[in-house]
């Protein structure tokens, strides 16, 4: 018998709030009979959104009131100091109090990271949580972290990210000894800054399946199962890849609409184009994990639609069932113990 999973949703976060979160929640409940969801936010808008979809509160779907909302451009420190009854904070608080197994928000990334770190705290041996998401590759997808939580990182931080990414990939994908690579400006040992070179040495000496440096194009070739970098580089790489995907899509539409002949060719190629769109659709990969916390928190894209937010819910369910935080904790403990005996 499958154990019931309860997830709290920041229903007011993101660009669309309840208009996206409520239909995504209803869809997830249909797909997962052992799932319970808590909609956290202002009661009136949530009741109205439920009514629009012909739904109401029940045993598997309830509303938890929160009076405040964190703005998408609000400073994390301000949100942390003045928004103690926000939907974001209340949703994470439910995880801390054991009422929920995980929390998801499409809200302000900086505020979410700061609030999650303040409320849940980090695991022993983890200095900073990191944001990890999946990116499509030639052979499937790769887990990449950090994608923006830590602009400046030491070699020790990169090493911790590698451990967390390796454990998460092993838990989610069932891959034994995932290949871990460091994102760098070249594959040669002499290339890279001091932090990357020191992290490379630490990973080489560790029991992780470290495969060395990975260049930007190597990420999409699938040269590793986990790619590690600092948040500055990771966020630039992520946004660049999204921009290139959008550019290719724009040019393809423009070319197929150029004249009657290209329109006809577009109709013939429609099944292939739809298949291609599904494979590179970023909505398929929505739901970035905030790794290193004493609980499970996921960040959905701020502009996510119901399908994309539903994907984040599915990822959270998987992380809960696999017990990702406890797996990271155990792996780090064993690595640190082995290091002390050396």
TrEMBL record:
Catalyzes the reversible formation of acyl-phosphate (acyl-PO(4)) from acyl-[acyl-carrier-protein] (acyl-ACP). This enzyme utilizes acyl-ACP as fatty acyl donor, but not acyl-CoA. Its EC number is 2.3.1.274. GO terms for biological process: fatty acid biosynthetic process; phospholipid biosynthetic process. One of its GO terms (cellular component) is cytoplasm. Keywords: Acyltransferase, Cytoplasm, Lipid biosynthesis, Lipid metabolism, Phospholipid biosynthesis, Phospholipid metabolism, Transferase. Belongs to the PlsX family. GO terms for molecular function: phosphate:acyl-[acyl carrier protein] acyltransferase activity. It comes from the Bacteria. Pathway: Lipid metabolism; phospholipid metabolism. This is Phosphate acyltransferase. It catalyses: a fatty acyl-[ACP] + phosphate = an acyl phosphate + holo-[ACP]. The keyword Transcription regulation does not apply.
